[in-house]
């Protein structure tokens, strides 16, 4: 292409505005003098004034000088409009925290500044792309640097709800110990002896320990607390519900045994209640042991549920065994509720089945409402829901079964005698 054009360029010549003849040599190179100048326009101050054209000559050189390969001129002689060098762009530069996005149908120098997406930063001007932060970090407010994510769990001293849970748990623990002291002081009275006082003491102790289990759910989860919290609560709570079931079965057997020639008379006694408590709670212990051997709970860092924080939580290991533990508690409570409901209207000066019915009704209502709330929350809110269910259900059993007895022991002592009962 150069050879073909050079053939014609060597014969080309023209006259410029200074009447100087310009031509090319046989190699197609300009041999005349070049004038390098800058031209700019001054806008008139008034509408009717003409536009002034300014021409500033910067340098003069020969078009063809084999020994000269560098163009030299004085930049100080260049005059820009408003004193600023014009830029080949349609908009301002993109600040850090933004990236360039091309405008369809516009030149390359025209672009939009788009803020970096969630989890991304840009720390340079006119950045082409945004960089993603590591999993354990998050962009700051200006999206110019990555900062460590915050950790979320039920914290002592920072979460007000933790203080509330501690106060409620300690209050119920004190109330449970007070009731236990009353039962010990009135050990031989008919109300305490009624319906197996040994089971009553086992029930009080298991409820007390269930309230203390709340502290395993508070604070930063670690492997040992994750291993203990659900299993400890499940075992102690199963002893409580098994004791309630034992009392319910005792009431049912007692009324059936009053009929002449009833075969239920041989089942009336302390041993039956103790066997019920031991067998029912042993099944829960077996479930928890298998759970620990198959897939034990452990600490887990959840980085996906929230984009700006890391949830420190307990992974239950096997959901099947976790819900088996809860399901078994629900089975014991349901059986106890049905049996107590069947004998609630039987005549007696103190029919404990009525109070067992109310306690199991509270228990079942709380845990049925807890399941959807538990599954629909995350992080520390999920733990708070379970703590609330534990405190409410244990408090319901304690209040419905033992408060009426304590009231009669303390304020109705005239009927707390064998002849009246």
List keywords for this structure.
421 residues, 3 domains, three-stranded mixed sheet, Rhopdopsin 7-helix transmembrane proteins, 15% strand, two-stranded antiparallel sheet, alpha+beta, 47% helix, 13 strands, 10 helices, rod-shaped
Q: Any idea of the CATH class of the largest domain?
A: Mainly Alpha
Number of domains: 3
Specify the CATH architecture of the largest domain. Up-down Bundle
| Rounded average pLDDT | 78
> Looking at CATH, which topology of the largest domain would you report?
Rhopdopsin 7-helix transmembrane proteins
Strand order of the largest sheet: 11-13-12
- Low-pLDDT residue intervals, each spanning 5 or more residues: none
Main beta sheet: 3 strands, mixed
Assign a percent range to the helix content: 40-55%
Instruction: Please indicate the percent range of residues in DSSP E strands (runs of 2 or more).
Output: 5-15%
| N to C succession of SSEs | HEEEEEEEEEEEHHHHHHEEHHH
CATH superfamily of the largest domain: Rhodopsin 7-helix transmembrane proteins
Termini Cα gap: 123 Å
Q: List how many beta strands DSSP finds.
A: 13
Tell me the overall shape.
Answer: rod-shaped
């Amino acid at each position: 292409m150069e050879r073909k054009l050079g053939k014609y360029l060597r014969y080309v010549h023209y006259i410029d505005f200074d009447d100087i003849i310009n031509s090319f040599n046989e190699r197609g190179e300009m041999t005349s003098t070049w004038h390098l100048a800058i031209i700019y326009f001054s806008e008139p101050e008034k509408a009717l004034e003409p536009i002034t054209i300014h021409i500033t000559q910067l340098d003069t050189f020969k078009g063809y000088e084999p020994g000269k390969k560098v163009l030299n001129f004085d930049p100080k002689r260049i005059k820009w409009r408003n004193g600023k060098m014009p830029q080949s762009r349609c908009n301002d530069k993109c600040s850090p925290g933004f990236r360039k996005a091309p405008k369809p149908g516009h030149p390359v120098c025209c672009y939009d500044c788009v803020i970096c997406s969630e989890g991304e930063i840009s720390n340079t001007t006119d950045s082409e792309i945004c960089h993603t932060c590591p999993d354990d970090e998050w962009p700051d407010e200006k999206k110019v640097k990555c900062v460590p994510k915050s950790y979320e769990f039920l914290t002592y001293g920072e979460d007000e709800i933790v203080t509330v849970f501690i106060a409620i748990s300690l209050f119920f623990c004190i109330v449970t110990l007070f009731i236990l002291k009353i039962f010990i002081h009135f050990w031989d009275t008919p109300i305490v002896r009624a319906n197996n006082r040994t089971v009553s003491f086992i029930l009080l102790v298991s409820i007390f320990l269930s309230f203390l289990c709340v502290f395993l759910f508070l604070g930063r989860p670690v492997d040992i607390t994750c291993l203990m919290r659900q299993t400890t609560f499940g075992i102690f709570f199963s002893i409580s519900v098994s004791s309630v079931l034992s009392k319910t079965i005792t009431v049912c057997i007692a009324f059936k045994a009053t009929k002449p020639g009833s075969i239920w008379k041989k089942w009336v006694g302390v041993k039956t209640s103790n066997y019920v408590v031991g067998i029912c709670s042993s099944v829960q212990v077996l479930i928890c042991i298998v759970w620990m051997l198959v897939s034990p709970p452990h600490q887990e860092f959840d980085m996906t549920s929230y984009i700006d924080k890391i949830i420190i939580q307990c992974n239950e290991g096997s959901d099947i065994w976790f819900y088996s533990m809860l399901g078994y508690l629900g089975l014991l409570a349901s059986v106890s509720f049905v049996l107590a409901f069947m004998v609630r209207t039987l005549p007696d000066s103190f029919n404990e089945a009525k109070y067992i019915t109310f306690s199991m009704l509270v228990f079942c209502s709380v845990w049925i409402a807890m399941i959807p709330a538990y599954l629909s929350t995350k992080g520390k809110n999920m733990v708070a829901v379970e703590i609330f269910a534990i405190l409410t259900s244990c408090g319901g059993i304690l209040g419905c079964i033992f408060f009426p007895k304590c009231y009669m022991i303390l304020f109705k002592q005239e009927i707390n005698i064998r002849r009246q009962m």
